[in-house]
Amino acid sequence: MEKRRLSFWQIWNMSFGFLGIQMGFALQNANASRILQIFGADVHELSWFWIIAPLMGLIVQPIIGYYSDKTWGRFGRRKPYFLVGAILASIGLVLMPQADIFIAFLPALWVGAGMLMIMDASFNIAMEPFRALVGDNLRTDQRTLGFSVQTALIGFGAVIGSWLPYVLTNLFGVSNEAAGGTVPLNLILSFIIGAVILIVSILVTVATTKEYSPEELASFEDEKAHSEVIIKDGEKEKSSLLDIFDDFKKMPATMRQLSWVQFFSWFGLFGMWVFATPAIAQHTYGLLHTDSSSPMYQDAGDWVGILFGVYNLVSAFYAFTLPYIAKKIGRKKTHALSLVIGGLGLLSIYIMPDKNWLIISMIGVGIAWASILAMPYAILAGSISPKKMGVYMGIFNFFIVIPQIINALIGGPLVKYAYNNHAIFALLMSGISFLIAAALVSKVKDVDDIIQS
């Protein structure tokens, strides 16, 4: 038996929850540094606060992947995880920009960092099962389309999240100014709206998507694909969470090769997310690195949201072209070319004459972002057993979070001591990282690439 071919709209509904996840993620990416600075963090300290994000991914995603591989119940296999993750992430979204209401108990900066940790852990609980769901439900010849649709929804959600504070201020008159140490109303409302949309979009996927039963999956593989036991030397051996370490040692060669591509891709992304606001506030708006409360700084922060929305909007549309480009030139060349364009986009920020020209830079970043979210997973899914889809998708996340942890540890000191508090150089380093990742794509073996002449 073969898996059924799904229609475009079935694939769309299956991934629709990513719209809300990425809206919340975009609100965090575009505004967390700004909020932490408002609560008192210095520029060189930002990457240390952001280390929470990759640490949560390192811990949470493999565990969630392992248990979601083995979960079969009345609510499905993957769906319970991303529903719980969405609820917890929504709580973090509502409370992070309002952390100052807890100052009677803890400093607002500590509470804000704690809410950042809750959001990141929850996004990871929701995100990994979504990626595994695409691998579970789609045939090999539909996986590139599946991950591309997922990427498009990620892009649309991120556009909404990134632009929302700017839109609330400039179209609806919501204030983006606040007293020192407090978050503007436009950010608070944006995070609340993001929490609501996150829950609704997840419920759409839960209500419309059918997961294969264990018996169906076993028939596709001609074996019992999701057993609670492993047969070894004629005896039954209980599987356990510690099997993750054994799976890590036995990861496919393609996964090892992709790990280096992922390392430099996500090292670059992390640097951009953490330092974009201070870099553009300093380099483009001409502000001092100590300024985190002036009206012009708030304008710079809102404009960074617009720029992040631009790259996500570009990624949403570019994602739809990825299956067609990949069929012509292959997934590897498609990914390498996209990373080169993104790297040049980040490097160009340094020479752009004003804030409007930065839109061109973000177009390049959007092309790379779409490919980063789709092509490695499409390549990986063809190289791993469906029995291990969840756990390997979780382990693959190691190569996303480890470079972010490294950047978090060294990024702040580099900005303070090597770059003399000029955060723009952190963005240039991100561009160079993208170019290195592009070069490393040539080392990857794509075992089930489909190229049509």
TrEMBL record:
Keywords: Membrane, Transmembrane, Transmembrane helix, Transport. This is MFS transporter. The chain crosses the membrane at residues 48-68, 80-96, 102-123, 144-167, 187-207, 258-280, 300-322, 334-351, 357-379, 391-410, 422-441. The keyword Thylakoid does not apply. It is a multi-pass membrane protein. It comes from Flavivirga spongiicola. It comes from the Bacteria. InterPro entries: MFS (IPR011701), MFS_dom (IPR020846), MFS_trans_sf (IPR036259). Residues 254-453 form the Major facilitator superfamily (MFS) profile domain. It is found in: Membrane. SUPFAM superfamilies: MFS general substrate transporter. The keyword Cytoplasm does not apply.
